[in-house]
Amino acid sequence: MVLKPTRAQKKTNYDQKLCRLLDEYSQVLIVGADNVGSNQLQSIRKGLRGDSIILMGKNTMMKRSIRIHSEKTGNTAVTNLLPHLVGNVGLIFTKGDLKEVKEEVAKYKVGAPARVGLVAPIDVIVPPGNTGLDPSQTSFFQVLNIPTKINKGTVEIITPVELIKKGDKVGSSEAALLSKLGIRPFSYGLIVVSVYDNGSVFSPAVLDLTEEDLLEKFLAGVSMVASLSLAVSFPTLAAAPHMLINAYKNALAIAVATEYSFSEADEIKEFLKDPSKFAAAAAPAAAAKSVVAAPAAMEDKKEEPEEESDEEDMIMGLFD
């Protein structure tokens, strides 16, 4: 006869299992499990089999086991999980790529009907068209102020109607109508709410960032540091180039306004004394552009047949 484990033994076994997983895995996804059935959870377990393990349990038991593991091993970083164990949540321990695991979990969503009293996770809009219901069912539509008409002996919805707004509770009339129309507006599955990686806990949105997003955020941060440094005249690596350029501009302005001078300022002073030198300096740049444009112009000329001008005719006539 096999004896069933007592409640104390179950707690001990759970503690040992969770502590073992915390020893083996440094990455954990904290997932919300509202409205997820056992069959659906079993399918997710099969899909993640190989490098990930799902562990469910009461929040008090998970917190207790994490504290025990922290005390035994001295690993205080795991206690960062405790504030996030709120509500109906579970833990996915993984050694795989966090983004790939998150995407795999998102695949296992199941459609669900709108039950009375349920808080709508999304807006529910009833599309226009024939409902297939007989005219005796129009009372449902009238209660919900849905415009309809009778078409070929059935009820037809004229315009799309926002039946339930996100965050509102589903009423009995809305639930009955959606059931009659065969609409299952909601879908449920495990939702990643937080990510634990080697002691750090962050939002799952971080997993969707690309290298371009990171570079953009980094450049924005550098720009803010440079702006603040310039505003308070505090030198930093980000602001140093701007400070040097501004100092050079100030020195140049003082040299131009006074008799003090240096080699770079002498050149500017010469330009200010003789503005025609500005045109002379601009000439090489214009010449470079013309050199670049010349080959293209020559190619265009080669394609066109050459024609003798009137002037050439006059010159040739003088020597006849």
Automatic annotation (TrEMBL):
Q: Among the record's GO biological process terms, what is one?
A: cytoplasmic translation
The entry's cellular-component GO terms read: cytosolic large ribosomal subunit
Tell me the subunit arrangement: P0 forms a pentameric complex by interaction with dimers of P1 and P2.
Q: Which organism is it from?
A: Cucumis melo var. makuwa
What keywords are assigned to this protein? Answer: Ribonucleoprotein, Ribosomal protein
Q: Which family is it part of? A: Belongs to the universal ribosomal protein uL10 family.
Tell me the segments the record calls region Disordered. Answer: 294-320
Name listed for the protein in its UniProt record = 60S acidic ribosomal protein P0
State the function annotated in the UniProt record.
Answer: Ribosomal protein P0 is the functional equivalent of E.coli protein L10.
* Domain Large ribosomal subunit protein uL10-like insertion: from-to ranges: 114-183
Compositionally biased residues, Acidic residues: 305-314
From the UniProt record, which GO molecular function terms apply? Answer: large ribosomal subunit rRNA binding; structural constituent of ribosome
